[in-house]
Every structure is written in structure tokens, then in C-alpha cells.
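Consider a protein example.
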Amino acid sequence: MMDIAGIREHLPHRYPFLLVDRVLELVPGESIVALKNLSVNEEFFQGHFPDKPVFPGVLMLEAMAQAAGILGFKSQDKTPADGSIYYFVGADDLRFKRPCVPGDQVILHARILGDRRGIWKFAVRAEVDGILCASATILCADRKG
């Protein structure tokens, strides 16, 4: 498990773009399960379909990528303070299956599929109450910050 302080050590993002609230499970070199709580107070809900607020898909993708970034950093025993940064560089097979709304607890899953010359490939998905909301295969580049 990892609380917000540990997450801030392993991601360079800060509010309002820090989209992981807690790490529930982590197996370095394999997988991560993380949590994003969606509060009606999030700024993006004020302008993204304000009469029927929906978590923007691009932010859902970013949240999944941030979970994968934590997994990558922990798998290499590095942090951004070590001069390393993970750039989100691509997504394949991205699908949105269910909208996420205020009050949802989004569970973010990432699994390492492989890495080659600093390019990491992850299978990611987001669920609410065990129902798939989004999934993709993403690429992240590990580079000097």
C-alpha cells in the first residue's frame, strides 16, 4: 500500500493533475492496483457536462497512465528526485465502456507487458464496483528529467 505522500514521491504530478489517491496493491515488476476517488468538487466536473457531470475520458487515461508510472518507478527502485521521469507516449486499443461520475471510486489496474530500451508497455484498465469503465495498452518512456 502507498498513501498520498508515497505517491507524491513517485509521481511529479500535483493537484489538479495528480489523479491517483492511494495505492492498494503493488508487486514491483508485475502489477499495481490504485484508487481515484471522484468528488463532485473536482474542477473538471464544473465544466464537463455540468448538468450530468462525467469524468473526462482523457483524464481517465491519464489516471491509468499515472498508476502505470508508479509501477514503473517502483519496479526500478527510482523516483523523479533521482532525475528520472516517465513520459506517457502512446495508447493502443483504448476503449471507454462506462462513464464515471462524482461519488465513484475508480480502481486503476496496470500490469507490465514488457520493456525495451526504456520504453515500457502496460495493460491498463479502470473499474467501478467491478464493472469495466476503460481499458488500453499504453507506452511510457523512462527518460532523464
User: Anything to note?
Assistant: The chain has a mean pLDDT of 95. The radius of gyration is 14 Å. Residues 25 and 87 are 23 Å apart (CA to CA). The chain has one domain: 4-144.
